[in-house]
């Protein structure tokens, strides 16, 4: 090998000796050349080339070649120097003219590499084999041959020899070679495994490190890259790419539900901490502006995993103002909007980016449509999915098929749609079918219990939830639904325990928050006000310009079941004999537990004939989800009209009622009251009231509400109206329209119209006509109020008289 290319193998002390030996040997063979004639000059050119200035020697060799035939050593030098500066095409052009020369194995390897660089695989393989690289013990030479074999698409041979090479050698280079071959053959996962093995054998090797990074990129594997790049001389751009890829991997992992509740935010917190460091560095680097935006966008996913929804929205708004935000990040933003009860914004985002194959996003999009009142769009989405989502899906490589979870999602969507369209009987049928055919699906049981609660069957819901406990008794959705059901059943202790458990474990979970909020409202004080004002009336019962008001303030619950209350009442009206007024002060105690309600109040009355004391003991008992028995004993209660008190007639009443309620569509109530007046009059009153749902939709409810009432009085010609015997039959139609609804907020209007007959003993039968219109507002779950205008025309002692009044009510919890 020429001295100029390998002087680095010779010490400086022996350089001249080696040089003169070559000159002497050349002269002895008689092959004197320009190199022999000018040793110092040529040596200087070689040294320049070794120092990076290669053009002088190449120019000199080119000129010499025009005058004479270059020696083998000069040819070898020219090939080697051209390889140094990457002139592979010059080497390929030179080689056909010198291929027959007695050149060294090393020179042939250099030429083979040049052909390989030019992707002339066949010529490269021929030279590699001539140089013995196919069986060489030198790992570098053998590695290049095997990689060229793969480049030439001789994959079977390359894979076999590469596998043997890796197994026999066990070195990092051998596994890198095998990884290269596998990648060329399209075996990306095998290539990654081999690159991983190579890196593990020599973690400080730059070649192994870069190969490992490339294999990770090919297989979209991020784990561990930050450790690798710490030992590699990467550019700042490449460094940021690796950091961003690692951050994105952290975000994906953080969004996966944790195996334990205790560790659910560990990955999210680590991810946010990681991005905090990145953002600090990228903001200081003017070249990292684009990467800074990528980091800010990806960080939104970590905020979502940490339930920091408001910060997520704030960051998104800032990013959106600077430019478009990719769809994957908009999906996170829509989820945050939905969590913050802004379903309109969430649905608008998903409408633009939704991918129907993304099961989780589709379910959330459907929820956003339902919660924003876009039921038509939600129904269309469910119908589209039902047409495209099969009941079962094929498993690749297996003859069996597996149940499709998304198909079940579509069926649950149908149940939800029926609920929101007030078709609860259909919702119940579908939910029962799903829960019955998938007995190991706890979510379906919880959903079925929700339908039962909505239909007014809390005990049936309780049984369903109890049976579902065996699957996972500590499931948050199950416990939250059990807590809401316990509130309906007035089982305050159970509801409190369940709420404490779920909110203590996962306070960010929406179902847990719903239960906790419902329990907090139950524990609030309550103000209840109701009243009515006569506008235009000539009724002998109510008088003219009558005004009635009753306001009660309830304390917070005491020892779960007790509440004390106090309030006032005021009744005023104008009669033929004068004005009647009754001022009432009220104080009492209320007891509520499962299946029972009891209230005891004491009243002080001032109605113009001195002070009088009265009271009411009332209560009811539920036997099951359908039957209730209630009653009351009252002194100076609501059954004693103001006109009687105006004329110093008092009385007591005993009342009893039976209520049968099949569901939200149908119920019947029968009341009986027996009143004893101080003027010896004894009044017995009966009332039958029924309700039958005729039509229901998302906005409208239409009910048939007939009533039949009758009374009998034993004394005639009293100061107050007391027909000897009467009967009123009044069929009515009640319609309610939901004008606006969003979560707990609701605005509705109600129409009621009735036409019937009034029969009074001793007088001709005459018609009863009634109409009312009301509006009700529920601003949130603590404040509700409404007002109604009532007009009716009915006979009293044979004369039809009109009555126009307004009624109002307010309920406020604080």
TrEMBL record:
InterPro entries: PGA_export_porin_PgaA, PgaA_barrel, TPR-like_helical_dom_sf. Pfam families: PgaA_barrel. One of its GO terms (molecular function) is poly-beta-1,6-N-acetyl-D-glucosamine transmembrane transporter activity. Keywords: Coiled coil. Residues 521-814 form the PgaA membrane beta barrel domain. Residues 410-437 form a coiled coil. NCBIfam families: PGA_TPR_OMP. This is PgaA membrane beta barrel domain-containing protein. It comes from Acetobacter orientalis.
């Amino acid at each position: 090998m020429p001295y100029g290319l390998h002087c680095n193998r010779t010490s400086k002390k022996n350089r001249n000796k080696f040089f003169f030996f070559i000159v002497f040997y050349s002269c002895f063979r008689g092959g004197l050349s320009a190199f022999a004639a000018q040793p110092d000059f040529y040596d200087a050119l070689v040294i320049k080339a070794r120092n990076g200035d290669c053009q002088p020697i190449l120019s000199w060799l080119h000129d010499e070649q025009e005058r004479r035939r270059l020696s083998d050593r000069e040819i070898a030098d020219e090939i080697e120097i051209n390889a140094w500066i990457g002139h592979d095409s010059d080497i390929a052009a030179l080689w056909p003219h010198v291929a027959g020369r007695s050149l060294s194995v090393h020179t042939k390897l250099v030429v083979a590499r040049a052909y390989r660089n030019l992707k002339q695989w066949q010529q490269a393989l021929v030279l590699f084999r001539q140089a013995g690289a196919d069986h060489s013990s030198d790992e570098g030479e053998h590695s290049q041959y095997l990689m060229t074999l793969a480049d030439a698409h001789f994959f079977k041979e390359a894979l076999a020899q590469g596998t043997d090479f890796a197994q026999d050698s066990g070195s990092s280079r051998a596994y890198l070679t095998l990884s290269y071959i596998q990648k060329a053959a399209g075996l990306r996962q095998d290539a990654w495994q081999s690159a991983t093995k190579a890196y593990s054998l020599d973690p400080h090797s730059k070649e192994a490190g870069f190969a490992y990074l490339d294999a990770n990129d090919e297989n979209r594997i991020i784990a561990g890259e930050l450790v690798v790049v710490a030992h590699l001389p990467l550019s700042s751009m490449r460094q940021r790419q690796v950091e961003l890829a690692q951050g994105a991997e952290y975000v994906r992992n953080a969004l996966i539900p944790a195996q334990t509740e205790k560790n659910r935010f560990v990955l999210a917190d680590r991810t946010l901490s990681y991005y905090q460091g990145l953002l600090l560095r990228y903001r200081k680097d003017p070249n990292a502006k684009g990467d800074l935006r990528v980091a800010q966008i990806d960080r939104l996913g970590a905020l979502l995993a940490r339930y920091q929804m408001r910060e997520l929205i704030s960051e998104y708004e800032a990013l959106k103002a600077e430019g478009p935000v990719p769809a994957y990040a908009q999906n996170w933003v829509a989820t945050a909007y939905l969590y913050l009860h802004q379903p309109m914004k969430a649905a608008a985002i998903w409408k633009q980016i939704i991918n129907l194959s993304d099961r989780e996003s589709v379910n959330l999009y459907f929820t956003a449509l339902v919660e924003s009142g876009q039921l038509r769009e939600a129904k269309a989405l469910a119908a589209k999915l039902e047409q495209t989502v099969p009941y079962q899906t094929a498993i690749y490589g297996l003859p069996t098929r597996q149940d499709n979870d998304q198909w079940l999602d579509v069926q649950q969507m149908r149940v939800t749609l029926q609920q929101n369209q007030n078709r609860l009987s259909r919702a119940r049928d579908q939910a029962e079918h799903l829960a019955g055919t998938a007995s190991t699906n706890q979510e379906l049981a919880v959903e079925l219990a929700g339908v039962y609660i909505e239909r007014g069957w809390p005990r049936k819901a309780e049984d369903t939830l109890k049976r579902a406990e065996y699957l996972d008794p500590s499931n948050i959705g199950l416990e939250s639904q059990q807590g809401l059901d316990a509130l309906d059943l007035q089982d305050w202790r159970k509801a409190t325990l369940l709420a404490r458990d779920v909110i203590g474990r996962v306070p960010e979970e929406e179902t847990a928050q719903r239960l906790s909020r419902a329990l907090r409202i139950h524990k609030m004080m309550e103000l209840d006000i109701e009243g009515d004002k006569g506008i235009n009336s000539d009724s002998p019962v109510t008088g003219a310009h009558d005004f009635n008001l009753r306001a009660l303030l309830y304390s917070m619950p005491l020892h779960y079941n007790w509440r004390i209350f106090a309030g006032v009442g005021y009744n005023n009206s104008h009669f033929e004999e004068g004005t009647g007024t009754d001022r009432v002060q009220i104080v009492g105690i209320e007891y509520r537990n499962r299946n029972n309600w009891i209230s005891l109040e004491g009243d002080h009355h001032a109605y113009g004939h001195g002070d009088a004391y009265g009271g009411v003991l009332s209560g009811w008992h539920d036997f099951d989800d359908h039957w209730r028995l209630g009653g009351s004993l009252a002194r100076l209660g609501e059954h004693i009209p103001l006109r009687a008190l105006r004329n110093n007639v008092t009385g007591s009443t005993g009342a009893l009622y039976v209520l049968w309620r099949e569901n939200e569509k149908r119920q019947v109530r029968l009341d009986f009251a027996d009143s004893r007046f101080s003027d010896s009059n004894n009044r017995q009153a009966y009332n039958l009231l029924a309700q039958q749902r005729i039509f229901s939709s998302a906005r409208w409810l239409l009910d048939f509400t007939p009533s039949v009432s009758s009374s009998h009085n034993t004394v005639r010609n009293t100061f107050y109206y007391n027909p000897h015997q009467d009967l009123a039959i009044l069929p009515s139609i009640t319609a309610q329209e939901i004008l606006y609804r969003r979560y707990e907020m609701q605005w509705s209007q109600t129409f009621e119209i009735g036409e019937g007959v009034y029969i009074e003993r001793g007088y001709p039968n005459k018609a009863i006509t009634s109409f009312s219109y009301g509006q009700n507002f529920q601003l949130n779950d603590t404040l509700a109020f409404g007002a109604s205008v009532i007009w009716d025309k009915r006979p009293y002692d044979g004369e039809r008289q009109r009555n126009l009044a307004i009624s109002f009510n307010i309920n406020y919890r604080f």
